[in-house]
Amino acid sequence: MNQIEQNLKTMIQSTVKNVFDHELSLDDIVIELPKDKAHGDYATNVAMRLTKVLKKNPKEVAFALLNGFDYTVADVEKAEIAGPGFINFFILKGSLAQLIGKIVEAGDDYGKTNTGNGLKVNVEYVSANPTGDLHPGHARGAAIGDAVTRIMKFAGFDVTREFYVNDAGNQINNMALSLQARYYQACGIDLPLPQDGYYGKDLVEIAATLKSEIGDAKSKEDPQDNIVFFKEYGLVAELQKLKDDLKLFRVEFDVYTSEQSIYDRGLVEKALQQLMDNGMTYVHEDAVWLKTTQFGDDKDRVLVRGNGLYTYLMPDIAYHLNKKDRGFKKLVDFLGADHHGYIMRLKAAIQALGYPAEDLDVDIIQMARMIKDGEEFKMSKRTGKAVALKDLIETAGVDAIRYFFVSRAADTHMDLDLDMATKQSNENPVYYAQYAHARLCSILRQQEKIVPSNHFELINHEKEVELLKQLNEFPSVVADSASTRQPHKLCNYIQRLAQLFHSFYNECYVLDMEKPELSAQRLALVKAVQITLHNALNLIGVEPVERM
RNA sequence: GCGCCCGUGGCGCAACGGAUAGCGCGUUUGAUUCCGAUUCAAAAGGCUACAGGUUCGAUUCCUGUCGGGCGCGCCA
Fold it and tell me: What ipTM did this prediction achieve?
């Protein structure tokens, strides 16, 4: 919420009180930006929304309000009634331009808000199994998770970025057996991979590295005797590879939590005990069940199997309890769409532990369908038929891939044409935005003879006003993007801002030596645009390049 | 069979319940003696899958139908 909108709301609120003796909270007053310039700079639908309570028709309400407005509390030049009962506001020329000075002064901080109010939030994303390379689905999750956490921090949330390492369970044993087989194979011994093994090239490479480190001594041992070694070596290698790939993608985490450590620290028993104390469990056919149906699940879930082993759910519950115990008020999980069936039981578990359902939000990241040679490219990490994140980065570059994923809503199903990946880099909108930034920087580099102005009364060209309005929206876009966890909204903003700038650039000459005063003021505007675009690109993890 | 997600120009995607549904790519036509043409200006292209409902007003909310994706283990 910026100052202009704030003032408008306050003015409307007091007018409604004076004219109709009706109390409205500021949140009930909606200020929107009309698409059509003829509809003014700002508009409100408050008159239409009041028809119900006041039992008057919208135009009548709007007319009464219009006569009651006190423009001294807002920067309004005039207001009009239009359409079915909208009130359109035209802002005083010049009041908007004051923004330039504020942005230049704020610099890297422009756009920061306190929307989050310091709320301690834990955001978990990616959390890929350490059994193979990251695929495009993980890349989408990584790009979105990373952008969301950056934006939330900027909007005043106290964010911790977390990665859950699934280093316990069957899939790790399969990885170990697969690595072992690859190692023996590298040493010339034909040890087959297990049925459910991992056939990806990553394990072939890790095996080769291992052989170069220790030679072929291990291959002379009975495979049954050294499987633990391969498990431990494989885990370290796979996890390091995940971290390296993610770092290459500019994605880093504050905390990596190991599933095995949840067991080792006794947190599983602690969580199970808490569930039992809350009366949320029962024993049936030798297994321990959690009453998830009490919270809307379609059937209860097993926590401890008949054979005494825990299901995957149990340590995950313990993990979530541990996050709460670490003081996080809000937990957010970004999950791949193939795990959506898991949401209900996780939310049930949180409640069974004694926390309100709202303490855990699970956001779904839809799968990205790969298209190759005009057909869907089915991928499987197990068979090794997959496109690795690293390959994607090599063909298209980090900025293009990140922007591609972040610019679309997480819940939309989308296609990524692998054949177009390179070509896509030319067409990718990220270059449009980066070019705008490079252009801005280029102008600023040539400024030596002109000092940017600190007053802006000459900034009133149509293109300039449009730019100013867009700049003015930045903090609320950040805030909205943060609280809804939808970074694509910021991409839309970036695209629009770049577009307005390019348009302005073509129509308004900035460095005009014959008009030094105008140039100085426009230069300040350019600086403000550059700052805003720079901050926005940083928030989605795309590099604001200065030259290209 | 049940559950979750999606259905918007040729393609990929936007749109706090708001005014004439936008943007990119592609297609067509223009623009550069000047700050970076990876740019700008303009045109063509739509029954927002379909049918009802809610209301001042629906792409958005509710119900149903059709189509697509995914999930329905004492696997993880």
Answer: 0.95
